[in-house]
Structure formats: C-alpha cells, structure tokens
Write a structure and sequence with these properties.
The protein is of the alpha/beta class. It has two domains: 2-141 and 325-374, Rossmann fold, CATH 3.40.50.2000; 145-322, Glycogen Phosphorylase B (Rossmann fold), CATH 3.40.50.2000. It is built from 14 helices and twelve strands. A six-stranded parallel beta sheet has the order 2-1-3-4-5-6, sandwiched between helices. A six-stranded parallel beta sheet has the order 9-8-7-10-11-12, sandwiched between helices. The longest helix is centred in the C-terminal third of the chain and has 23 residues, at 352-374. It starts with a strand and ends with a helix.
Amino acid sequence: MKVGFYSNLTIRHNGSTQLRCLQPAQYLRSKGYDVRVKRIHQSIPRKGEIVVLHRAFYNEYTEAFINAAKAQGSPVLYDTDDLLFEPAGSDYLVRIGKKNYKDYASALKAMQACDHVIVSTDFLAQRARKHLSKVSTILNGLSTDFIRNGNAIHKQRQSLNKDFITMAYLCGSSTHNGDFKIVEEALLKSLKDNPRLQLLLVGPLKFSKKFYRFGRQFLHRDFIPYAEYTKIFEQIDLNLVPLEQQEMFCQAKSELKFIEAGICGVPSLATPTDPHKKAIRDGLNSAFADDHEWEQKIKELCASPQQLRAMGEQARQTVLEFYTPEKRAEEWSQLFERLAQDTWTSASPLHPANGKMLLRYSLQGIKRELRKIKNG
C-alpha cells in the first residue's frame, strides 16, 4: 500500500514534521508500506496512494492537489497536531508571534475539503468533529532513535551522583514565554527556600534576571540540537510542563513533553490539561499543579529524591506501554487498512489545467530548494 505525507512545512527532523510525517512514515515502513514524505508545494500525488495533508491551508495549489488525488480515487486525509482551524487557536498563535497561522478559515476549508481528519489528541478530535464527521485520534509517539537514546540515558541515571535536585523547563522557541510566566515566581521562591534545588532553563525564554543571583543553582542554555536532546535528561530530576490552561490552544496540545522525559525515567510536574489528564496518574507516574500550586508541589516533590525516582520509573513504564513505535505503527496501519477497503471516487475528473498547474508549481518548488542547497 502506498502512502504520501505532504506537509505545508519544510520537512525537518524535529518539531511537527518529525512527529506527524517522518515518524509515522517510519512506523508504516516497518509494516511494509511504500511511504514518502514531501512538502506539498513540491509534489504531485501518486496514483493509488493514501494522501495525508499535514497542516495544509487552502489555496489554488492545495485545491488542485486535492482534486488530483481524488480524481485518481485516492482518499485524502487532513492531519494536524494543533488547533489551527478555529479562531481560538489562530488568535493564540498570532498573539505568541506565529502570524503565519492567522488564517484559521483557510485551514478549516482545507480540512473540510478532505475525506477524513487525523489529530494528535482527543480534545482536538472533539473540536474537529464540529466541522467534519470522520475524525481519528492517533497520539504522538517516540521514534526508534529516541527510545534507544532514552534507554541509554535511563541506564546512566541509575549511577549518577549529584549535588543538586535539578528541575528543568525545556522549550524549543520563544513562543512559550506565557507558559513560563505561570511558574516564574514559584521557581524563584523555591530556589531561595531550598539551596539543594537547581533550575535548568533551555530555550530562548524571557526570564527575570533575579535567577542569576542563585549562582550554581541556575543554568540557562539557549539551544540544544534535537539530535542531542535526550542527553539533557541525564541531569534532570523533575521536568516542568506549565501551560496556559485557560487557552483552548493549550488544552489541545499533546502530552509530548511528558513522554519525552518519561522514557528517560524523569517524572513531570504538569498543568492538568485534557491530554495530560489522560496520560498522567497524579502522584504515581508524574504530578499535576494548577496555577496557584506550583510552589507547594515543587516543595513536596523535591523533598524526596526517592519519590521522584519512583515516579520516573512509573512514567517510563507508561511510555513503554502506550507510546512506542510499535503501538503507533499498529494504529496508523489499522486506520489505513480500513480506508483501503472503501471505494473513493471524485465528483469530477481532474481538469487538465489543474494538472499542468501542479506540475509547474512542483517543479518551481524543487528548483527553489535546489537553489537554497547550492547557496548553503
């Protein structure tokens, strides 16, 4: 069976395209599928393949691409791991600096032009069903490499002797300043009250200069390459996952930070959003903190390194049970097997002009990428 993942984004081995295109491709190839991953504006759908459009927006080219796939009898699926298709989601994204996502109506129109929707959380599925009846949830998972590296870090952590109990807030971009503000004062007070505590911040965050007063208790790194990301968990005892829970966009975000830490044996202290409540058993495999509880919860958890280690082991078991490549491969393949049993027809054949436009746009896109490579 042939499958094509076509993203509106540049294909990268991190972030959304890693989670929702490259990893599912890896999962499906392990099941014998013929899978390719490409940018939508550099591609033409193959005859007889299941088409997955990742975070696409509606425009002349997307319309022609969808029509081309359907004219060949292919099902077209829309995949998103964020709330792109409703005003609450796009308004939040614009507010945190992601102005490319201001047009929720275009994302919604692209989604409604497809036959089926795939999302990464049940909360997103509930929102998507308001616009399209056929919706499936396939949770985010970990890659084979991440599992292998996480296993190695977990083993190394067993014999590690440390001067501090280290809390960490890990973010990949400057769009998480609102999330960090939720815990900033609680962290400052926690460091002051307990000289055995250390805070590690990773990412281009805006944070108070007061943290520098704590000397060795405070560490900041602007950036960690994704290939080295698991190594950071070797020194972490508690992973912090604050979110602006009053924001619908944040309620839709997946439990990814919990599972990335969990495979390394590191527990999380997280805002109780809908996806977190489905993954975390409070006080067993990680813990919850509402906005006003962070200082107290940090104090309780960090008072007992043994408790943190026990919770970390339980978090790891949760990840190994529910978030492995094997688990996700089964879910993706089951969905596609069901779709393959249906007959897919187009209301009208592909117009020759649309076919020519697809070819022209895809060749132009390929040439642009080649120029970027040549220019370094």
